[in-house]
Every structure is written in C-alpha cells, then in structure tokens.
Amino acid sequence: MSSNVNFTQVALNGLPLPAPGERAVYHDFGGSQSVSGLEVRVTSTGVKTFSVFKRVAGGKPERVTIGKFPEVSIDQARKKAKAIIADLAAGVSPSETKREAKAQGMTLAEAVTRYIEEQTREDNGMHLKARTKADYLGMIQPSRATVKGKPTKGGLLRKLAKKPIRAITAGEIKAVNIENKAQRGERQAAYGMQVLRAVLGFYGVVLKDSPFDKKTPKAERVVIPKTQAADDAPVKALLSNLGTFWRGLSAMPQTPPATT
C-alpha cells in the first residue's frame, strides 16, 4: 500500500499498521516543507523508517535508508533527504558508495548473503522473494557427503564462494561456467552466471577483461541468454475467435430437456 501524507508528528504517530507480514509506504506530500522523494515505510509491528526513493541520474531508481522515526525527527529526515536527492541528481549513488566500501575484502559468499537482503526489485522497490533468496544462497553452498559417502554437486558458485570478490578473475569465472555447463546444463550454468554478474555489479566490482563485458572478444566472453517471454500467440488467437465460437454455439439447436 502506498499513500501521500504531509509528514507531521501527529500524522506519523497516527499511521495505521498494515496487515501482518506486509509493509505500507507513505510519501511526504502536501505540506509547505514536504520533500518529494522522502517516504516512511511502516511494518506490521509498528516500525517506521524514513528513506528516499529516487532515480539516480542516468541510472535506476534507488532506495536510501535514512533512519527510524521518532529517533530521527521529521526535520532531520527532510534535511538528509534533500542532501541525498542532490547527490542522486548529480549521478552519485550513496548506496553504491557504501556497498563499494563494504566490498573491500568481502568474499563472494558474504557478498551474496548481503546482496539478497539489500537488493530490491526494480518493479516495486520491495526486497527479493524468499524463493529467490533461497536459490541464491544455494549457489554458494559447498559440496557435502551423502549418508552413503558420495559427494553432492554443491552450489553453482561454490568454487568461488570463499574468494574475495575483488580477487575473482575472468579466467576463474569462465572455468566455473564451463564446468557448470558440463555438469548442470546450459540453463543452470546461465542462471549461475546471471547471479554472479548481478552481485559483482551490485558491489561495483570491475573485472579485468570481464567475460560479461560486450567489449571483450566473443571467444573470451560468457554469454548469458536473455529470458524469452512465453509465446502468447495461441492465447491471442483464442481470444480473437471467442465471438465466433459463442455465435456458433448459440446457433446450435437446443436439446429439449429429458422427460421422466
């Protein structure tokens, strides 16, 4: 749920709580001091958090957390929001700056674990779904022995899991991709590379001769197929002919009811 409200002490204290497990978002709007882009997110337990949700100049929309209300006052939140919005308008991403600082010495396993909690979906700004988080965490799981002593395959990115993300090389990525293709197939291998590319990009890791860069020679590149939408031609054909179908059905002689 998303609504507009002029942020005042009385208004924020009186915000209704959403249903259990859900989150409501209120935008600062309608007052002489309101700041466009400032919002407060309310959880079902009553936690109210100020944040800014705006697009970085030349980039994607980004949510930057400011702090919890009432520990952070409305005036403080508005002042911080203006500074954050100015940075975003200049193409500076506060979140990216923080992520790059965190990434120093961070292993891939640590990066994936943090990524699934910090990343948000582009369509609605909400966090990743539980199923997606589980999939990503599964990729960094090591191989384990079964009850019969046989080793499991482990996660798609297990061989890179303990390596610092800034030390991962293009050669290592290509080797993992080749192995995954042989053991798991093209589709699973592509999924692993898609996640790896997203995590490295999230933390601003720049690879030398990156296999994900289109400028890299094709022979040295890891090509991730685009997800194709399902063919909706049969559905469109059915919908376009529904009128004809119903007219034909109506023209059929009616079967008289059975008599007893």
UniProtKB/TrEMBL annotation:
InterPro entries: Integrase_DNA-bd_sf, Integrase_DNA_bind_dom, Phage_Integrase
Keyword DNA-binding: yes
Domain Integrase DNA-binding: 36-101
A Pfam short name: Arm-DNA-bind_3
Keyword annotations of the record: DNA integration, DNA-binding
GO MF annotations in UniProt: DNA binding
Top-rank taxon: Bacteria
GO biological process: DNA integration
Family that this chain belongs to: Belongs to the 'phage' integrase family.
PANTHER family: PROPHAGE INTEGRASE, PROPHAGE INTEGRASE INTS-RELATED
UniProt protein name: Arm DNA-binding domain-containing protein
